[in-house]
Specification:
This protein has 295 residues and is an alpha/beta fold. 36% of the residues lie in helices and 18% in strands. A 7-stranded parallel beta sheet has the order 3-2-1-4-5-7-11, with helices on both faces. Strands 6-13 form a two-stranded parallel ribbon.
């Protein structure tokens, strides 16, 4: 039986996985939001790569889900939940539960579901205490997917991703574009990160070794203060290092401020011990050095 990946959302991480699997001979299909900016152009680009494209949002269900999902063997869900919940579950819960060939489903969540630990470390066994509405929505979506597994034996796996970076999406590009004007000084505040290629590596490892109901933290080995990461990126580029600005005096949008609500280190032992993952970019230094050629 040939393998076919369906992406609920052709997002940044889902596309990295799709690209790899396509190179291995997999068929790829998935969705984009019809109302998103440039949706038509994106659909054209994806179809030119050989990907099947369908439109989906809370107002637009899949045209023929039985036909579209009938030969799908693997699903990755990267669509963020909205006020109406997870769109795949809201519109196609029954269809997913009825899939006969489905071997693996991966839901891409966030380490934000843990909330803050004041610099302490979290593992997959820790309770969830989301500190922001969007993180609570992710926790609710996780619970809904796990309930689907309980109700219908859909092989659900949860992946809690740290801050994602990679080609086209990184602080190096922002610095080179002159969009980084300050470094925020808040000693002891750390964030975890993960390169998009390593996300795909983890997902592939889980596909090879599925454990329905499994939950995995996906991050690198080097949580760090953002000001230190920015300084390293500037020196790597030979760019001036912005002055430190105390957190209380920093100019940030309300959305940007919310990212500073959480302060924790994320343990990534399970992806190594269970899935056998060896990170290509175990820290931001190696990741940034590799990204220089993409700028």
């Amino acid at each position: 039986m040939s393998n076919k990946l369906f992406c609920f959302g052709y997002g940044y991480s889902a596309l990295e996985l799709a690209k790899r699997l396509r190179e291995r001979g997999w068929a790829i299909s998935g969705t984009i939001r019809p109302s998103s900016e440039g949706a038509g152009e994106k659909a054209g680009r994806l179809r030119a790569l050989g990907y099947e494209v369908h439109f989906l949002d809370h107002a637009t269900a899949l045209d023929d889900p039985a036909e579209i999902l009938g030969d799908v063997t693997h699903i990755v869900v990267s669509t963020p939940p909205g006020t109406e919940g997870d769109v795949a579950l809201a519109l196609h819960r029954t269809d997913i539960a009825a899939m006969k060939k489905l071997q693996w489903l991966g839901y891409l969540s966030t380490t934000g579901v843990y909330g803050t630990r004041d610099g302490g470390t979290v593992t997959e066994e820790d309770p969830l205490h989301p500190s922001m509405p969007r993180s609570q929505a992710r926790a609710d979506a996780e619970a809904a997917w796990m309930q689907l597994r309980k109700d219908s034996s859909v092989p659900v796996h949860l992946f809690r991703l740290a801050g994602i970076y990679g080609p086209g999406r990184n602080v190096l590009r922002k610095i080179r574009a002159g969009k980084v004007e300050q470094r925020i000084d808040r000693p002891g505040q750390v964030f975890s990160r993960i390169h998009v290629e390593d996300i795909a590596t983890v997902l592939e490892a889980s596909i090879r070794k599925p454990r329905p109901g499994g939950i995995y933290n996906v991050c690198d080995d080097a949580p760090e203060e953002p000001s230190i990461v920015t300084e390293y990126a500037c020196r790597l580029l030979g760019a001036p290092v912005p002055e430190l600005v105390p957190f209380e005096q920093a100019e940030m949008s309300p959305m940007a401020q919310t990212f500073w609500n959480d302060n924790k280190r994320v343990d990534n032992s399970l992806i190594k011990t269970e899935l056998g993952v060896e990170l290509r970019y175990p820290d931001y230094q190696t990741g940034f050095q590799a990204l220089l050629s993409t700028l």
